[in-house]
From TrEMBL:
It holds the Pfam family ABC_tran. The keyword Lipid biosynthesis does not apply. Belongs to the ABC transporter superfamily. It comes from Solimonas aquatica. Residues 20-249 form the ABC transporter domain. One of its GO terms (molecular function) is ATP hydrolysis activity. PROSITE patterns: ABC_TRANSPORTER_1, ABC_TRANSPORTER_2. CDD domains: ABC_DR_subfamily_A. Keywords: ATP-binding, Nodulation, Nucleotide-binding, Transport. This is ABC-2 type transport system ATP-binding protein. Transmembrane segments: none annotated.
């Protein structure tokens, strides 16, 4: 099966403007090509899953999109703004939530939202904080220190923080990891709502293929720094002779490993 020729002209799922355009993005660590010249985009109201086995280059890609890691080549445009030349404007339209980036535990929910709101220069900050506390059902926890919250509550606060600046591009790294199935389901609905109701596009990494099938409009399969395959997670498995996304993932990871062998 030929997994290595993802169409460069995959159909655009809808005619919304692009919130993220990545062209020929590359990053090397010594002789290791962690990201090998990838190109993709994310549109408004779209949730795109960035999938791939351990070491595929997902975190390296996200770190370059966040501007915390310099690439060796390529171009990143966020809401039309070049990340290299218009860095602060581009990053002002981006936000991020990940379990490995918890908010300071000694600050209350409100203090954290205030701190990050000031960093993002959010106008009418107290009003915005009030809206977010309501939207993410955090009113009763507003004065509680974040370090005392449950995983599910902390995830909701991280998402509220990530929506402070009403980002055009929202990066979510395994947002439901560590949540029980009921809480994970609630959170997926909440995130789906963000993509539908706001002018936001979401890039979502996850190792949970059922979740990806349920939430993502489109997926990109990354392996050894390259995009192997791209498309609708509900159609891709059958199109390649697999029963579901889990089986396709295992097939792709295997093909990637075979290609890696001398
Ligand atoms: N700072 C670094 N120095 C050297 N090599 C690195 C560094 N960071 C990442 N790598 C290598 O780059 C490759 C891609 O790593 P990356 O963390 O982006 O993968 P990933 O897809 O996020 O994996 P996972 O699913 O395990 O988090 C791996 O081979 C990794 O060992």
């Amino acid at each position: 099966m030929d997994f290595f020729h993802a169409s460069p002209n995959s159909p655009i799922p809808h005619a919304q403007p692009r919130v993220l355009e990545v062209r020929q993005l590359a990053k090397r660590y010594g002789r290791r090509e962690a990201v090998a010249g990838i190109s993709f985009s994310v549109h408004r109201h779209e949730i795109v899953g960035l999938l791939g086995p351990n070491g595929a280059g997902k975190t390296t890609t996200i770190n370059m999109l966040l501007g915390v890691l310099a690439g060796d080549g390529g171009e990143i445009r966020i809401d039309g703004l070049d990340l290299k030349r218009q860095r602060s404007q581009a990053l002002g339209r981006t936000n991020f939530a990940a379990i490995y980036a918890p908010l300071p535990g000694n600050l209350s929910v409100r203090q954290n939202l205030r701190l990050f709101g000031m960093l993002y220069d959010v106008p009418a900050l107290e009003t915005r904080i009030g809206e977010l506390l309501e939207q993410f059902e955090l009113q009763t926890l507003a004065e509680t220190k974040c370090g005392l919250l449950s995983s599910g509550e902390q995830t909701r606060v991280s998402l509220a923080k990530a929506m402070l600046n009403q980002p055009r591009l929202l990066l979510l790294d395994e947002p439901t990891a560590s949540l029980d199935p009921a809480k994970a389901h609630e959170l997926r609905q909440l995130i789906r709502g963000i993509a539908t109701e706001h002018d936001t596009g979401i890039l979502w990494t996850s190792h949970n293929m059922q979740e990806v099938e349920a939430v993502c409009d489109r997926v990109l399969f990354l392996s050894r720094g390259r995009i192997l395959l791209e498309g609708d997670p509900r159609q891709l498995p059958r199109a390649h002779g697999y029963e579901n996304l889990d089986a396709l993932f295992i097939g792709l990871a295997g093909e990637g490993l075979q290609e890696a062998r001398p």
